[in-house]
# Entry
Amino acid sequence: MSTNIGEGTKENKMGVMPVNQLLLNMSLPMMVSMLVQALYNIVDSIFVAKLSQDALTAVALAFPVQTLLIAVGTGTGVGVNSLLSKQLGEKDMKQASRTAMNGIFLAVMSYIVFVIVGIVGVRPFYASQLKEPDSGIFTMGVQYLTIVCVCSFGLYAQLIFEKLLQSTGKTLYSMITQAVGAATNIILDPILIFGLFGMPKLGVAGAAIATVIGQILGGTLGLIFNLVVNKEIDLSVKGFRPNASTIANIYKVGVPSIIMQAIGSVMTYGMNKILIAFSETAATVFGVYFKLQSFFFMPVFGLNNGLIPIVAYNYGAGKRSRVIGVIRCSLVYAFLLLFAGFVVFETVPALLLGMFEASDEMLAIGVPALRIIAVHFLVAWFCIIAGSVFQALGNGVYSLVVSVARQLVVLLPVAYILARLGGLHAVWWAFPIAELMSFGVSSFFMVRIHKNVIRNIPDKM
# Structure
């Protein structure tokens, strides 16, 4: 019998359950956990903002490196998730276990890289963004980001073990690891930042410590759940050797995903450079925007985490109708989530910014910024789901092309030009412009992958 929480065995659930019910069964726990994670991201910055706007700016400027940290772990996990789910669909349990162990090995290697980044790269990173490298922003930012990088082993453990649980359909356990980690962060944040209950007042360093403690707890729970309930894969280190062929197959899907998200890191860094030329407050607004938009985008990413293994499994099992059906359901749910985000950003931007102790200058810059940027929500839903479909069907390079075109070929150059021609207010229009381009390219690739891949999948009962 399967140990999974849900209806029936793995085969019945992934290959037989009605696709809408299956998508909700797989995605809702992850959507809830990612909502909790998004709430943590917002609450974390709310607490930091109570220290000072400089503290909020210091944390906001760390976002490109934090994005890169998550990009490497999540991208590797996407590769493991897609390959492992396909192997389970093909009933190749031995190879599935090999894929899982190689995924854990890659997570360890990734952590080692970011320890080095934390030790030697953080100071020059902050110095490159600030007009005054010896400012309070610099000092607080270096403290914060060094802790996050050097102690990122918890993050990488959490990400890989969650992906293993998701690959075998145990999304409730994945939700628990994320929710417990995020809740720990939220509880520890005010205690360590402000020195409550006899603890020392650590400021932004306290926010970083709360973050890594939550990640370590989430990673530990993920390991325990995999060892206890994830019987489809064998996580044994006895006789393990890294396998070049398996690693290559993981990164066939994973590297495009890593690069896609890493491009987001480059984009954020570039936008910070453009905005800080106007004022540090403009860069702070941009950082706050990313915190706020996560409340709507993170559930869509949770939806993706449920979508990818379903598509990959039924692709491997040769069930075309189920592949098409779950893609259609995902598009509907993604639209509803981001349309809700669009409405909120358009109607109450001042209220959103007010949560971060916004000054008059921050409100003057931020209110029009949020309203303009939110226009791209109206098309982003399609682009996000399309990218996940490309990855699940082994064509992650399509997602890579779309991401490069959107963020490097269009968004940054357009933002730079608009900054020169129209000033700060015009810069924010780069986001809707770039998203329209992304929609066009994603639509082209979706038609192509339907013709060349989906249409050729057999439709077994």
User: Anything to note?
Assistant: Residues 84 and 233 are 9 Å apart (CA to CA). DSSP finds 19 helices and no strands in the chain. Residues 1-10 have pLDDT under 50 and may be disordered.
